[in-house]
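Q: Could you predict the 3D structure of Alpha/beta fold hydrolase?
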Amino acid sequence: MPRIDLGAITVEYTDEGAGTPLVLVHGHPFDRSMWQPQVDRFAGDGLRVIVPDLRGYGGTTVVPGTTPLDTFAGDLRELLDRLGVDRIVLGGLSMGGQIVMEFHRLYPERLRGLILADTTAAAETPAGRRARRDMAERLLREGLGPYADEVLPKMVAPHNIERLPEVAAHVLDMMRATSPEGAAAALRGRAERPDYVGMLAGVRVPALVVVGSEDEYTPIADAELMHRAIPGSTLAVVDGAAHLPNLERRAEFDTALARFLDSLPADG
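A: Sure. Here are the predicted structure tokens for Alpha/beta fold hydrolase:
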């Protein structure tokens, strides 16, 4: 797999196809392999799909401590600079969607389109901040194994765990393989995330908001709020999926993404 040294970290990433750059950002506690079905589907036919492992996840350097969302966004910008990539269509799921919003806050001129999947734009609540910090300490004590077993039925809807055992196994493997130090650093950073809701009204590029109909972490109401806030955005609710519709209902997710990509105006 390609790796690139950014100085502070070394990033492992996937880069396939040619044409309009589509960059996909994974969620927590996963890695870039969660987007492999979309790499397989969209790389080529005028699209260059770039999917990095985030700082602390997958094959990218683990940096203990606290990783704020602006650090993740800065890593992404530096990776794109090193690859000679300017304007992109940027998508992310869950934590990845929050990184997408932070990237928009910092570097809006780099964007041609946004994809916000199963994420939320609101700042963390006081109770949520405490819970994330407590979870960071738990992961450092226990590792990811017990947590992964506990949350799998929320990441993947129980009926999909039964119907799609290979998807459930992939999700479980990604979670169990994640570095406790990397996951804890991200949780501490997300505890301090800003409120993006007010910013969304200023989005000036096409946007697709996607959510699984059975998502407990970021329910439909969160997606509807972002859809209402972003001028001209498209909302797609994927029936029968929980927090990972791109894996649980791949065909439906890919259809919504393909329609959005096909609708984008030519760059420049």
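Q: Anything worth pointing out?
A: Residues 126-142 form the longest helix (17 residues).
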